[in-house]
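Dear U.,

For the methods section draft, I wanted the exact inputs and outputs in one place so we can describe them consistently. I've listed the two proteins in the order they'll appear in the manuscript figures. Please don't edit the token lines directly; just add comments below if something needs changing.

First protein:
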Amino acid sequence: MVCLVAASVALSPAQATAAGNQVIHEGEFNPRDLRWEADPQGAVYPILDGTRPLAEPGLPQLPVQDLVFLVPLEIEVGNLWIEPLETHREPAKNGLALGAPHFTDSGEMITTTRLTRQGEVFPSFWGEFTGSHVWRGYRLATVSVYPVREIQTAQGVELEFLDRFAVRLETGGPVEAGTIAVRQRLIPGEAQENARTLAELVANPEVISGYRREHGQVVQNMSAA
């Protein structure tokens, strides 16, 4: 996995629509894949295949799915946001386990969090844009999707499950000329190797074959005999 620069941006669907955006992916989660595990204290939390724990100290332990997308090289990424297409409610099991504190190598406890609880629903959004990066002449963008949200009601805690969703791309301005390195010399087999790597990495592999990327020119060996 390449290292991406974090750049969290939270726009509402109305704001993103006004700014212009396009659907680049549709996905789904199967509620039959929802399972429960217990932490050392016996408190339970939901898990789904293909996700990781949110692990925010003191906040509900929920699953997260990280997705990587191949997006146009010549345009800056303004935002990626998750549009819920279908959701339903699931009962929670006596409240949810909370994320444990983190510890440094020296044993110092860290309880700071990146997310915060805002109101009765956590997380308050279904996902967030987490960064963009150029890799070997391909622009990648990432988004974290929250397939399960905790809802606090007068009757207790419920879960809101994301059955189907769309990922929308909001583009920024054009990339300034000369700011991206372009392959000058053709390296045999490089394009095919890149395509194989991307096919395993991105959630939209169908765009790889038509992606606009300079593969370089053949350089003849002009050395004297």
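Second protein (the one for the lower panel):
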Amino acid sequence: MTIFNQTIHKFVLGAALLTVGSWLDQAEAKNLSVTITDTQGRPMSGFLAGATREVLRIAANEQGQGITEVKVDQVDNITFNESPDGWSEALKQFQAQDFSGAEVGFTKLARELGNIALVPDEYGALARYYQLECLKRNGKLPQLATALGELRSSPIALGEYYREQLVRLRPWGLAGKGDWDGVLAYVAEQQEEREDAPRPRFKAELPRSEIVELSYLAGLAQLGRGENEAGLENLYRALTLNDGNDLILSGMAINKALAALDAMLKESESDELKREAYSIAVFYRDAIGKGTIDPTYMHLLKAPPKLAEQPAGPEEGNSGEADAESETPQGLEEAAASTAEEAAEEAAEE
């Protein structure tokens, strides 16, 4: 079995085992120019008209005429001599974090290139991968859940790095289906109990960015189950651990927190809850919103009565509202303290 043959079978199997609109109704696209090198080192040029686990369909011209089927086990390497129309623009948008624009481009490309999605780590498979990432980044979790589910019937061939990223999308897909128990079960699988810790800790090998995502998803799931206090704690932890590195995730977390706090205030108007909501709203405006805030939560910027009525000091001349705004939001402060404590313990162990 050639390296290319081993690769395509391994990559397709890995993708198909992931339980994560149908791609069978693919749009027409021009066939891309490729050069295939067989196991004897002989090159063959043509236009890639399709790919399965067993064969590559090579056309004599761009229109797809004169098809020759080349068995995968006879292929050592395949080189694309051109990129699909729209690829560079969509990739630039993705890299610039214009995920709305990139989603449009990669959705179109994924449909057009679905017939070559079984060529490992190439345009057909990568277009679908980037589309899935865009759905996640744009917060379109129900659509992401649907698209992930279709990977089983219409698999794509991706290498180890991209397969790992697809696995990380699985709990996002569960959230898109509202499977809160499933989300929390997935999060629990990434944690381990420790006798010296009050709560389970995430496994040491997990990257910080994944811990941030899992903390956010755990908070989302707990809010979905009505566990508001635990949900807010995890959202605050995601914000603290993220530390502004991923502004999109920070925005998602703080919007969910404000929505939860706003709903809670409709049930209870305690001063403590008002102060927490006010502090988080100020943090949103100053640290994330660059001086602005979603109009939906504008009313949360009204300082709680006790803070507003606090007299200014004789020398400082600061209002109670200004004092409040200078503070770290209480929930975030507690999350930061907890996170710092865990980090200190881990450093001491090393």
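Candidate sentences for the figure legend, describing the second protein: The mean pLDDT is 84. The chain is about 55% helix and 10% strand.

Thanks,
Y.
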